[in-house]
Model the fold of this input.
Amino acid sequence: SKEQTRALATTNEAAYERARRVIPGGVNSPVRAYRSVGGAPRFLVSARGAYVTDVEGREYVDLVASWGPAILGHAHPEVVQAVQDAASRGLSFGATTPAETELAELVVARLGGGTEVGGLVDEVRLVSTGTEATMTAIRLARGFTGRSLLIKFAGHYHGHSDGLLAEAGSGVATLALPASAGVPEPIAAQTLVLPYNDLDAVRTAFEAHPGEIAAVIVEAAAANMGVVAPLPGFNRGLTELAHEFGALVILDEVLTGFRVSAKGYWGIDTAPFRTEAKPGGWRTFSQETYLPDLVTFGKVIGGGMPLAALGGRREVMEYLAPVGPVYQAGTLSGNPLSVAAGLATLRLADEAVYDRLYHVSETLQREVSTALAAEGVAHTIQRAGNLFSVLFAETPAVNYAQVQAQEAFRFGPFFHAMLEQGVALPPSVFEAWFVTAAHDEAAVERIVDALPAAAKAAAAA
Ligand code: PMP
Done:
């Protein structure tokens, strides 16, 4: 097409130059700007399966997967067909459609009542972004409990609503400060920011603010500071503590939901027996279940289209308008194209898809580690389900302070060496690597072949 030809006539540099004149920083979401790795971001024109193509016509094996949604690979023909069919019936009605009920039923069926471990989700509200899902869940928790304060963990990301752009004050139980210009101090001061994986800090905060804390929000497994899994029993302990003090738990599965398992990270975390691959073998341990009060979804649930959701038990969810007193709304909520993409994606994501995601992830973890070890680069593979990231440090990190202490300067050269060889990693060391079920042996081989040179570049940094 004309558009395609015009796009291909340019370079990434030129496209970036042009974009920066009319878009702040040339990007519509900051991490796309290659801020921490340097250079012009790749301007993409198309994506298919495991590959993306930039304006120069160069193809890359993609390990961003749109930051999570593309578990089936890009532009899966059946998902695209479902969107095209939906589009042919109308783009948006501003009225309820039967497909929204189907999607809600699907989520409830996977996470709902009647299972051995008890249900997590009886009802679902569809929204358009993860930011909206967590923002609404927090308002709902405040409305339900009649309390104001919120606990979040340092290094966890839940979207960009004001109260979540907060960073720790001087002590564990002190109210937070704004983490962005434009966030009023009194709003940041409604949040307490605690070190992750530290239940003592959570207890201290609850004891310092009796009857004031509405909710704790936590990533089901942290994956926005690189991957940092919850220590065994952390999510359960957190839930018990919150409930002891009359607060709700919001389990944020925007990134992990429907990616690490059909029941998200909660499904892994509450399986009666959990088996994990460890270097040199397998490890099985038993664990107990826990029931957070609200759960948020995004990314995979929309199959690459703008869609997110919050869900929980009926008693809490029915505090939402129009049934209850907590207001929330959206012109494009439950958009028919988004719902079609989400339904198609979730229905196609069968056991074979999850098996493939795990296989690819474990292969890459092993190969990355081998390549870095061969060059003597101190590193740890941080993993949670099929999510992983590389930490440039000898010892595993369990919180944000430890993640920040790594040799982050090694990532830029590593990233660019991979990019030059046709592999697109997330452009920051503080991000998870996302595999897809479309990463076949050829795609994996291309990544593996690129690793030795990238490891050399990291070693030389
Ligand atoms: N929660 C988590 C755990 C996320 O990873 C993200 C996005 N990376 C969000 C919330 C916000 O979602 P969105 O970008 O769709 O607003």
About this structure: The two ends are 43 Å apart (CA to CA). The chain has two domains: 2-63+351-460, 82-348. The pocket of 4'-deoxy-4'-aminopyridoxal-5'-phosphate is lined by residues 67, 129-131, 134, 157-159, 219, 224, 252, 254-255, 298, 308 (CB under 6 Å). Residues 162 and 183 are 6 Å apart (CA to CA).
